[in-house]
UniProtKB/TrEMBL annotation:
It is found in: Cytoplasm. It comes from Oceanobacillus caeni. Its EC number is 1.5.1.2. Keywords: Amino-acid biosynthesis, Cytoplasm, NADP, Oxidoreductase, Proline biosynthesis. This is Pyrroline-5-carboxylate reductase. It is an enzyme of class 1 (oxidoreductase). Residues 5-100 form the Pyrroline-5-carboxylate reductase catalytic N-terminal domain. Residues 163-267 form the Pyrroline-5-carboxylate reductase dimerisation domain. Gene3D superfamilies: NAD(P)-binding Rossmann-like Domain (3.40.50.720), ProC C-terminal domain-like (1.10.3730.10). It catalyses: L-proline + NAD(+) = (S)-1-pyrroline-5-carboxylate + NADH + 2 H(+); L-proline + NADP(+) = (S)-1-pyrroline-5-carboxylate + NADPH + 2 H(+).
Amino acid sequence: MKKNITFLGAGSIAEAILSGIVNAEIIEKENIFVTNRSNQQRLEYLEEKYGVTTVQNKEMAIRSADILILAMKPYDLHESLQGLKGFIHKGQLIISILAGISTDTITKELEMASPVIRVMPNTSAMIGHSATALSKGQHASEEHLRIAEELFKTIGTTTLVKEDDMHIVTAIAGSGPAYFYYMVEAMVKAAVESGFDQQIAKELITQTIKGAGEMLQQSDDSPSTLRQKITSPNGTTEAGINVLEQNHFQRIVMDCVNKAKERSKELGKN
Ligand SMILES: NC(=O)C1=CN([C@@H]2O[C@H](COP(=O)(O)OP(=O)(O)OC[C@H]3O[C@@H](n4cnc5c(N)ncnc54)[C@H](O)[C@@H]3O)[C@@H](O)[C@H]2O)C=CC1
Ligand SMILES: O=C(O)[C@@H]1CCC=N1
């Protein structure tokens, strides 16, 4: 792709995405520009690690961009664009990865009919395994969507969704990895409590999650059937699952996803 791409925001997800793009070599490193609010040390780290160009002079980086990736926190959007929208021009493709924020809000903030694509990646982008969802705003064309898809395919899978569904998608896929990490934390704790080695426990659990993920992808069985095949009558799995059931584990996970979805909606309103 012969394009200049500029990140506004240099946090953890910006790093995950740019790491994926750099590894895939889809855009020359020299054509990737990264800016943040003020943390010079952070920019130096990204420049050193990925060979991208980091800049304090946002004007130049924004004006010269073909694609602008908005990667600041949702609550920093307004202030950030207030200072920068003068440098943004209509021909640029705006990609927003901000949780909760609609493409219409971005258009309003920019005060121009820019093409905006809303994207929800996750941090597995870092190793090319993001499950990324995309939807296009009213001023974006199919070609804009195609460009965004091409870019995000370098960091994992891409799925087109209706913009209204972005809240639930954010709850299951954007935030999703964190729930699994949380579960792993608990499993490791239990293993350590049993006197088992922490590192070996982590390795075994990691391979177990990877295997389960591959099974979910490759097997024709439903998640429920896959679970049942592990659960021998009166065996260890049943004993464990019974505790989850007694404590309403599925209800808790559903509440967790719903709460994340509601939070996404709130972020969009504020
Ligand atoms: N962390 C994640 O897993 C995911 C995050 N997101 C979204 O990505 C966005 C960033 O999230 P994180 O990377 O986790 O946050 P973060 O706090 O790690 O990074 C935010 C970045 O924005 C920069 N920033 C703030 N104001 C700015 C300005 N005026 N100009 C330029 N840069 C500015 C900060 O300096 C910082 O580099 C959020 O909107 C979040 O909803 C989306 C998907 C996944
Ligand atoms: O927690 C958040 O708000 C962001 C959006 C999805 C993942 N992290």
